Amino acid sequence: MNQAELTAGSLEAGEIRRTPQFRFYRRLVRRPVAVAAILIILVVYTAGVLAPVVAPYHFDDADLHNTFASPSGDHLLGTDRLGRDVLSRLVWSAQTTVIISALTVIGGSLILGVSLGLTTGYFAGRVDSVIMRVADALYSVPTFLLILIINATMKDRIKSLFHDIEDFSGIGGLVRSGAPNFFLLSLALSIFGWVGMARLVRSQVLSLRESNYVLAARAIGSSTPRILFRHLLPQLTNLMVVTITLSLGAVALAEVSLTFLGIGVEDHASFGVMIFQYAGPTNVRAHPLLLFAPTIVVASLMLSFNLLGDALTDILSPRRR
Amino acid sequence: METRRLVLTLTGIGVVLIVVLGGLSIALLATGGGNDSGSAQNGSQTSPAATAQLPQRVAGELRLFGGDPISLDPACASDADSATYIVELFSGLVSFDKDLKIIPDIAESWDTSQDGKVYTFHLRKNVEFHDGSRRVVADDFKFSMERALNPDTQSTVGEVYLSDIVGADDFIAGRAQEVSGIKVINDDTLEITIKDPIVYFLDKLTYPTAYVVDRREVGNSTCFQGADWTQHPNGTGPFKMKEFVLGQRIVLEANTQFYLDPKPSLSQITYLLSGGSPLVMYENDEIDISGVGVNDVERIRDPNEPLNKEYHTGANMSTDYIGFNTQEGPFNDPRVRKAFAMATDRALVAKTVLMDILLPAKGVLPPGMPGYDENLAGIPYDPEGAKALLDEAGGPDILKDVTLLTSGQGAAPSEALAAVTALWKQNLGVDIQIEQEELGIFLRDVDRGNFKMFSLGWIADYPDPQNFLEIKLHSQSPDNETKYSNPEVDKLLDSARTETDQAKRTSDYQEAEKIIVDDAPWVPLFYGQDSVLVKPYVKNFVNAPFVIPRMRYVTIER
Amino acid sequence: MNGLAAYVLRRLLLVPVILFVVSMVTFALGRYAPNDYVAIQAGSRARPETIERIREERGLNDPVYEQYIRYVGKALRGDFGQSVKYRGTDVQDVIFPRLWVTLQYNAVVMLLTFAIGIPVGTWAALRRGTWLDPLSIGTFVLVASVPVLVSVPLLQWLFAVKLGWLPTGGWNERNILGVKVGIFSAEAILPVLALTLVSVAGLARYMRAQVLDVLDQDFVRTARAKGLNEYPVITRHVVRNALLPIATLMGFELASLFTGSIILETLLGIPGIGLFAFESIGSRDYDSIMAIVLLGALVFQIAMLLVDIAYGFIDPRIRLSAEGPT
């Protein structure tokens, strides 16, 4: 998470020029490295979204008569110890990443971060200082450790909550689908993940609050929500897109790490599970491809996010290199 | 000027930081060491902090990979890792030798009364605690066993291994000040009276709960408090604790005063508690003995592979199984349980997933265990029959919310188990989710019947079928997690318990096992097997099926 | 400087508040978790009466706030309870040796990072415009992007299995002048290598940007234009600018002692504080978890404070508000 926080922090500190959208994107696509990074990210996330369609097999389809198969036409990346298709497991793992990222972005960055940022920025004073104190506090605790603890201790509670929801609503299969784990993991990530976005929005709102058109809007009697959402928010879209993009890498890595430790998603494919199962030295020696496949995907995803982050920061604050 | 000041300030901050934190740890480490030597003054010659030395090989040293022990208190340990060290550090009245025969240990000999209920042990007169301060007398045994039974000690195993003794129940319940069945006749003679004339009572006495501890050292420590003394225990076993660094290593050194032959030949044993892969450590000559896992066993089985000559296998008296909650739906219906048993192709899983390092199981008793029935048919693999039987009992729908409980930490459950559930899915059309729980929580849930089905293994404490069939499947046994209850089986087990005719006893147990397998409270999955690599210069290594004191036999001949 | 002192004081006053909140949240999570932690400690075969008696003895039937007050009281006197993994051992007797392990290799990583990262980054900046530039920056980004979760299994495979040069993991301390030191054994190389690679790449990347910034600044150009020897100017400013990342990195390094080490130590089986945190969470060892979290939060606070102070010294333009520049 630190990576994204840092970058968000430097964005905030740096002088940010409001570039018209088209100029922003034109500058971005002129950088081949950035385009390549975007492509890699898009491929992984699209595969994740379309997993049920594009994955040749289900991630759990075992075939005990065809274990450790070498790559072939049927199984492009071979199969694992249970005869499960490695490529399909990668694709379904990407789905897990997509779900967690989406939930965390919506819950943490958009809902919590934007609303708190707008509130604190616009209504300075007591509200502002309380929320920013909380943000400080969240920055000064060992985040990963607390996320681990929240997940470990709340897992069973959340599960029984979902059981109750199932009983109450009559919707079956919620717990089965792994929804409680997804929910809890994103919740824990969101609790600590809103600060960067809130600070960014706040600092922008602070500087825009006294700008002419906001003053004008206020003068003609626009209501506060209207000013916030019609006048201030659109100004921030670019920055928000950038911040979210930069945080996605951290969210994805957090999901993989937590799942690797056995505290993230359960009963679902994940890069964390794949690395966990084939990371031991004797495993790697015997079946190198089974470790290389997920690690290469994770590493290239992280690399792409970093390259894209560099490019975005560069465009937005051109003095830095 | 300014720059220099900045550099100095920052360097200063850095240095202060490192010094403060480092110093803090060192200071705390040092005080920890101080405590050690403080309590070691009680007589122990070995002060771990002082004798810690460079981890270079000493002549006659054996190096092993070891598990981190949870407790080295003989009264408390309930796991195999802890027991491995305890049996070398402590000793009791009797023990198993390398051929799994009961041999006299601290007791030189014993008499059994006509009715088989009273054991009179005659103690050796030359057994001393490691520190050489005094000899072991009968009263030390009474103290140690009562300590293990005392509820204040909070032992979870004392009762399991010692409650056959007359008066143990009253003592546990607080109705008596002592265990009436343990009598000190004189310093050299101890008399133990048991409730029923069970033939495996001596087997139970080989378990650490009956070992002798130094009362001056243990004080009033319990299983959960004040266990500092276990870092430098003053035992009576063939090896002494030389060094114990939590999480890193345990070093044992030979007890030259040991009273049994052969005396330990190894000068010391170093157990490395941390680290990566034992097999790679073995290949890099860091350790002398290593287990072999599924990834390497095929390579090592190849006769052309140099390691093949160092490869040994041996029976390991254990059985992995799936247990059902037989008192609750859907598994109170024997047809459902049987359908699962029929749908489980153990041979396939053993071969493809486990590379045959475990053997497919048919029954409860593992090979090597007395009473093991080679001709037991078990429930053969029959996918069509399984499906039909399940449909007859209500179909896959009755299993909608069933999860399979297992112990474990980490991203994914064991692959063998995943393969088993995959087979169920394929053959029965049921999607059983595997739920992992941390071992302690898992055992508690299983103990409380908080499950529909679970996966567990049971390893013998002593080579007697009672240790499997009665303990795990008698309706009155506290360790019968499945709450399986069949009066016919109970009757057979009860009579076999005290039967002195060996042949009749065996046939009773085999009869009971047949009924049990057919009722299917368990789906037996795999029998254990030890696959190990042993360096050629390590001689007389005993590949024991369960934890026994075995290091005194080992020699190193380079 | 007055402003700084006031700021430091304010931050220091905040430390106990945050510790208080963190301890309360963690305590509540532990106590309200659905698993009965006494039953877990007592093991599977304990009788219900025994468990009930222990609950009573430990005051676990009291209201949670009373338990919490009692815990705080004990903790302030240095009693953090009992470990579950090592039965009957005090938590602090387990934690500090574990922390020491983690501290050792992290300290070495930090020193190596500065020793390598700063010169390499500066060097890369001075080579701007040559073919080495894209190569070096590419390498930095690549190496800095690979997470420990990915790099460690690969390094382990390469150095321990394929080449057989290093042990696969673990930790081995020996007595040096009465102190148990593990950093001089072969086991320490793999973790140090894995962490150093990442942070050297990160620092070098940062240093390169910093130096380029300085080179482009007006005063350097002016100095050049005046024909002055530019190097003293550059050196001075580069050093000044380098101090910022050093301070930040040191802060983060210290702050991540507790969390950054979890994955690394799990992969390599190093018995440090990270692995202990992971094991404690897995076995619901709440006394240990509390102690680790409190210690972690404390170290984190101190680290952040030091970073802020360093910023204040180096660049007085950075306004020290409670928000801090983190």
Can you put this structure into words, describing what you see?
The complex is a heterotrimer of chains A (321), B (558) and C (326). Chain A has helices at residues 2-13, 21-29, 32-49, 51-54, 86-122, 126-139, 143-169, 179-193, 195-209, 212-219, 224-260, 271-278, 281-286, 288-316. With 321 residues, chain A is mainly alpha-helical. The model of chain A is unreliable at 1-19 (pLDDT under 50). With 558 residues, chain B is of the alpha+beta class. Chain B has three domains: 5-88 and 226-314 and 530-556, 3-Layer(aba) Sandwich (D-Maltodextrin-Binding Protein, domain 2); 94-218, Dipeptide-binding Protein, Domain 1 (Dipeptide-binding Protein, domain 1, Alpha-Beta Complex), CATH 3.90.76.10; 319-528, Dipeptide-binding Protein, domain 3. In chain B, 33% of the residues lie in helices and 19% in strands. Chain B has helices spanning 2-40, 48-51, 80-89, 138-149, 158-162, 168-173, 201-205, 215-218, 278-283, 297-301, 334-342, 346-352, 383-393, 415-428, 439-447, 466-473, 487-498, 502-519, and strands spanning 61-65, 94-96, 102-104, 107-112, 118-123, 182-186, 189-193, 239-245, 249-254, 268-272, 289-291, 311-324, 359-360, 403-407, 433-437, 453-459, 522-534, 538-539, 555-556. In chain B, β4 (107-112) and β5 form a beta hairpin. The relative contact order of chain B is 0.13. Residues 24-54 of chain B have low confidence and may be disordered. Chain C has a two-stranded antiparallel sheet with strand order 1-2. Residues 318-326 of chain C have low confidence and may be disordered. Chains A and C meet through α1, α6, α7, α11 and α13 of A and α1, α6, α7, α8 and α11 of C.
